Amino acid sequence: MEGSREPEVSELSSAEEALLDDGVASLATTSADSWASVEQRAWWQHINLRKIALFLVSLYLFVLAIALMKDGARGLAPLVRVLFSVNSPANALGFGWLSAYLIMSGSPIAAASLTFFDAGVIDKLGAFAMINGSRLGASFIVLFIGFLYVLRGRNRATSLSMGLLSLTVTALTHVPAFLLGLWLLSRGTLDAIQMRSGALLTSATDVTIEPVAQLVTGLLPLWAVFLVGLGLSMASFSLFDRCLPQATLKESQVGWMSRLVYRPWVMFLLGCLITTISMSVSISLSILVPLSARGFVRRENVIPYIMGANIMTFVDTLLAAVLLKNPEAFTVVLVVMVSVAFICLLVLALAYNRFQHGVLAFVERVTAKSRNLAIFMVGIFLAPILLMLV
Amino acid sequence: MKILLTTHGAPHDEVALAFGAHIARGANEPATVLCVVERASDRPQAGAALKRACELLRGAEVHTKIRMGQACREIINEAEQGKYDLVIVGERPDPNLLVRFLSGSDTIRVVEHAPCPVIVAKRKTGPIVRILVCDSGAQGRLAELGPIVPERPEAVPSLLARFTAQLADLLHGEEEVTVLHVMSQISAAPGVKDKQLRAEAKELIEEHSPEGELLERDVHVLEQPGVHVWPKIRHGLVIDEILAEAQAGRYDLVVIGAHRGAGWQRILLDDIAHKILVQMDRPVLVVR
Q1: Is the ipTM reported for this complex over the cut 0.95?
Q2: Residue in B with minimal Cα distance to A288
Q3: How many Cα atoms are found within 13 Å in the side-chain-facing hemisphere of A86?
Q4: Which of the two residues, A355 and A78, has the higher pLDDT score?
Q5: What are phi and psi of B176, to 5 degrees?
Q6: Could you tell me which residues come within 8 angstroms of residue B239 by beta carbon, excluding any fewer than 6 positions away?
Q7: Distance from C-alpha of A70 to C-alpha of A377, rounded to nearest angstrom
Q8: What is the CA radius of gyration of chain A?
Q9: Other Cβ atoms within 10 Å of A204 Cβ, number
């Protein structure tokens, strides 16, 4: 469940609208008020039954969605193979990338790629490439929202900085990680590491999911079953976002916390940790915001944080692989995570300073002139189309 | 102000002594020059180094001292036992690469462990006229600060408060002081009010933004007859902008706060002061 799901977009938009309407409205202030009220209650009073129920519903919908997409994936084989000609890793990369643009979300596309692989529509390398593509597409969404603000007359640099940073860091780490992952997969280096769903999980899904899945499969054509599954996965991510606790930090409450943000390794691990819990890059980023309040984040902290978040955002795809009961699918997701993690760690250990300066300079250059921005926007739309045509 | 200078007769010590002479001459107490030797047989060299130090500090009242042991540890011990207000050291590279890699140079260790403010003198040896004070505001909690009380700087728990409370003698009424705050923030999401992310110091002060309030308080705390104080905002990466401003403004002294704690904080919290000390090409005063 990564940062660019549709529900997250709407959440971001509402936060933005609040900031637009209230002037200097501060997320931190809100969090401080709620924090103060939370402190006065006993621990059991913190338990929010509504959120627990939402979590269970979102989990059920996610598992059902995977089951439906698995059943329906075969129905889309002609579409994927013939119409979109997804026959190579490059095609699959472009396909995943464009699909994430289309539904404004990456996680459902990553899950879909596994169901295509499970149904034999695409091969292992194709699934791997499509997952990578979904992440590249997902990181575009914050930029897209920023672009809408620019069209509404807001400052170009401040509206687009975060989106550009997210997209640039993702592209710069995922492209080399993609090549590394292809090599790892072709050599079968991580094939030995596989995970199957346990007997308890299997029997639980057989009882709760299979009857519903069979009912839907009996009523609808396979391609429609897949689309229903895709829709349900998006709905489940939306519900999951709503049941997350309002985790916020405030500089004045945790003075030393603001200094954590200058340490790239600490921010990288924090990005990993928070995204493992939230399973969303943009929710992770929104937790950072109150550290410097007023909707700002520090240049120093955001890049390693995005790196960490980009790795752990695949946790839900890993869960999807387990639910598919396909050990090879699990290996594919693991290779994505390992290869992205390896590249990020390499950058952090050896060239972080240059990387940081390079990325920030690039973002500044893109936002400096309308022409540069136009070239960049055309480029990120053309790149996946060209990959699909290869 | 009680000042401790150190020497071992090395070229970097001469830079520190020449720079420190300007401060020592204006101090109301004698300065102490310390030479640390590892063995008793090194005492003659220490004597020569101290003699040279006295020449460089001509015009100031000077006491000399020799201690035996490890240089960094003895400087810190002397600073603690002598209750000095300021230690001035040269940029003393440790000849052992492994030690430098693991724990930094002797100078860095003195800065980290000294009980008082430390000036690391480098390259420049002239008088202090232009001062750059870099205030992150992290030392104080702006929301908790009361009204500005220039007569009670301790009421403002910031870098500036410590600077003025501990080192008022550094200012003789002829200095030009720039108070710098670096805004390294960018908008966290599209649509966030962005005017302040591009604003200059004057605009931020007029808007009463947190950064503006910080600068306004700093200016009030530092203002005294003859001392000209300017607030300044730069936008970008903190270390880059401080280094750039120091060079562009041709400052004689850069003042920063010491952040680093002990234990887990040493590992988890970044030490911007350390990075600035290493990269800065002019004298740096680390206030604690």
Answers
A1: no
A2: B188
A3: 31
A4: A355
A5: -110, 115
A6: B272, B275, B276, B279
A7: 34
A8: 21
A9: 13
Residue A192 or residue B75, greater confidence? B75
**Residue B65 CA to its chain's centroid (Å):** 24
- Burial (CB < 10 A; 0-12, 13-18, 19+), residue A102, is exposed
Whether chain A has a CB inside 8 Å of the CB on B144: the answer is yes
Q: In the prediction, which pLDDT does B244 show?
A: 95
Q: Is the separation of the CB atoms in B212 and B204 below 8 Å?
A: yes
In this structure, which amino acid lies at residue B219?
A: V
Which secondary structure element, helix H or strand E, spans residue B284, and what is its range? strand B284-287
Residue B53 · residue B32 · CB < 8 Å: no
Q: Which amino acid is at A284?
A: S
Q: pLDDT by residue (tens digit) across A67-95? A: 888 788 777 777 777 777 788 899 999 99
Classify strands A296-298 and B3-6 as parallel, antiparallel or unpaired. Answer: unpaired
Helix axes of B11-26 and B43-56: crossing angle, nearest 10 degrees: 50
What average pLDDT does the segment B43-62 reach?
89
Check A292 against B210: CB less than 8 A apart: no
Report residue A355's pLDDT band, with 50, 70 and 90 as the boundaries.
very high
Q: Do B192 and A295 touch (CB under 8 A)?
A: yes
pLDDT for residue B94: 55
Give the residue ranges of DSSP H helices in A244-351. 257-260, 264-278, 281-288, 299-312, 315-323, 327-350
The neighbour count for residue B281, using CB atoms within 10 Å, is: 12
Give the mean pLDDT of A339-366: 93
Q: How confident is the model at residue A276, as a pLDDT?
A: 86
Chain A residues within 8 A of B210 when measuring between CB atoms: 293
Contact A19 B192 (CB under 8 A): yes
B10 touches chain A (CB under 8 A): no
Tokens of B259: 């952040």
Instruction: Give A240-258 pLDDT, tens digit per residue.
Output: 777 766 544 444 333 455 5
Q: Enter the tokens of residue B187.
A: 């908008």
Lookup: tokens for B93: 């590279």
